[in-house]
Design brief:
245 residues; alpha+beta; five-stranded mixed β-sheet; 5 strands; 18% strand; NTF2-like_dom_sf
């Protein structure tokens, strides 16, 4: 069976067939066509090519791609897999192997200290695959990222970011709302002497994301969820056709 080819991406310059030809992908080579369009339509900053802000934005998009889509840590080109540490909101840092044991995917990004019965969405009950499916279903066009401000350059890069997307699919038993959901935060990326990422620290409120995803009406059963999702998708398709007329 021939492996799927890698589509080149202008915002992730290392995502190329000649570089990633033998990469082991979790879900096959990723395509960013839809989220790139969302990014270009909704961004508030357009950074000059070669500027520090543009370089940081490219670095973070590359890092995100590898964290979510590559199976083998040793194939990560943006990080040093032996030194890499991740931390959310001041928690103790975890290595890539500890991240995998925690569940991987979106789970480390949604860590919470809330008691289990008070969690509207429990990341620890999910797997990397189930959480990936949940969020990519809720955001079929993706969850775009832009860098708003860079406060310091390498080796310790401190920046402010914005994520946004439209809830056009169901999430955790809730109906799609079509609303734009935004998430703002700060991050610190530390690079080594080889410009590899060795430490990532994020500071943001996961409830800003989950709150928007849980506003939709609650489904009574899976059949209703499927029906309403199909109807909502049909409405979006009709609206898109009208816009093109």
């Amino acid at each position: 069976m021939t492996a799927a080819s890698v589509a080149e991406d202008k915002y992730r310059p290392l995502l190329r067939q000649d570089i990633e030809e033998n990469t082991k992908w979790r879900y096959g080579p990723p395509s960013y066509e839809l989220v790139n369009k969302l990014f270009e339509e909704g961004r508030t900053k357009v950074w000059a090519p070669g500027s520090l802000e543009e370089q940081v934005q490219t670095m973070v998009k590359q890092w995100e791609m590898e964290m979510f889509h590559k199976l083998d840590f040793q194939e990560n080109r943006s990080v040093d897999p032996e030194k890499y540490i991740f931390s959310l909101n001041g928690r103790k840092g975890i290595s890539l192997e500890e991240k995998r044991k925690l569940g991987g995917g979106y789970i480390p990004l949604l860590q919470t200290s809330l008691p289990e019965k008070l969690r509207p969405y429990n990341p620890y009950a999910e797997t990397a695959d189930s959480s990936h499916k949940a969020f990519t279903t809720a955001f079929p066009r993706g969850f775009a990222l832009e860098i708003l401000h860079v406060y310091s350059g390498p080796p310790e890069i401190v920046y402010k970011f914005r994520h946004w997307g439209y809830m056009e699919g169901p999430f955790n038993g809730r109906a799609p709302t079509g609303d734009k959901i935004e998430l703002y935060g700060m991050a610190i990326f530390t690079l080594d002497e080889n410009s590899k990422i060795v430490k990532v620290e994020f500071f943001y409120d996961p409830a800003e994301l989950l709150g928007g995803l849980l506003k939709g009406a609650e489904f009574e059963n899976s059949a209703e969820m499927l029906l309403r999702a199909v109807l909502y998708s049909g409405t979006l398709a009709r609206e898109e056709r009208v816009q093109k007329l």
